[in-house]
Target: GH3 middle domain-containing protein
Amino acid sequence: MAVDSILSSPLGPPACEKDAKALQFIEEMTRNADSVQENVLAQILTRNAQTEYLKGLNLNGATDRETFKSKVPMVTYEDLQPLIQRIANGDRSPILSAHPVSEFLTSSGTSAGERKLMPTIKEELDRRQLLYSLLMPVMNLYVKGLDKGKGLYFLFIKSETETPDAMWPLRAPTSPPVGAVFASGLLRAIRFLQLNWQQLTEDIRTGSLNPKVTDPPIREYMTRSIRPDPELADCIAKECSKENWEGIITRIWPNTKYLDVIVTGAMAQYIPTLDYYSGGLPKACTMYASSECYFGLNLNPMCKPSEVSYTIMPNMAYFEFLPHEPNNSPGSTPPSQLVDLADVEIGKEYELVITTYAGLCRYRSRATFSSHRVPQLAPQFQFVRRKNVLLSIDSDKTDEAELQTAVENASKLLREFNTSVVEYTSYADTKTIPVTT
Model:
């Protein structure tokens, strides 16, 4: 396929032929979202037809949407938790998925302050890697010369643990310019540099690794790769020794083009601090993913944080959308209200409901999105809030978006003192009653 074959596409001219193929794949998926979704659902129902969960719903091998929608209920994690716990305890029968569970992913806990165990299968890794392979072709549309440089990513990996049966590992999601998954993670890395730059520069100066680093594979790799570099050590020490760390990222890495980091939702509170340390570099939210499922891409990754939206890739899972109502609950909302990806109404808010290859069926994600459309492509969705993440006192309910706005407005009072809010948390104080005037 020639590079110029999609010059007139909504995505823009590709940087190379490899990128052209990736962008073409995105367009084909999103232009034909409904038919792709229909095929995905049929594949999921066919392969998992003999699982305990689907057999219990009496689908009788049906793979069409109508039967699926009439017989499969919406569920929450609490509904599936007993089945998931059986898998974690060592039950090897096909409970949710016909394919063997390879490991459990633990959620970050950002959805409702608690960690959940999400079973996954090996082929999900390939599906997720496919989504990752689409990120740079999109980024190349907006930032030139990325192929001539390097990217620095901070990977925060929690210690691997085991399920009660010791059969499957438990993993927390790891992070994917300069970047980390969440804004808070990148700031952790900067703080670590603040505390340890002297030792870092000493290691670089001498070409040796501090004895505090005891992990054998890391020591073996670094022994092969590290070389004495006094000039680089002096350069880093010169910047880090200064009291003012404003713009430290571009002072140490002057060619940095953007920060690859999530700054939507609860992470929005860290935007001013990231601006301080980066000198206002663009913050690219490249994709939307969770432990349950990888959803889609941001096709305009260099937009302002307040304008971030995601195009759902219909090949990742089967997606349905529950119209947002203030008091929606699993028991009060009939599944008949769910709409397909092709049928969402522009400008409305929806909670995302997913059916995955790993066996989750009509699972409520608790993430609420507002939909809008890009010409010729599938609808895009802007993250609004996470359901049930709110302060609730009697009839007064405050979600994370409203809390973020309140903190931003209150922090304006600190400007005259050259002070800003670095981080905040919240809780419901029921000891006092606010006085209104």
Remarks:
- Residues 365 and 413 are 37 Å apart (CA to CA).
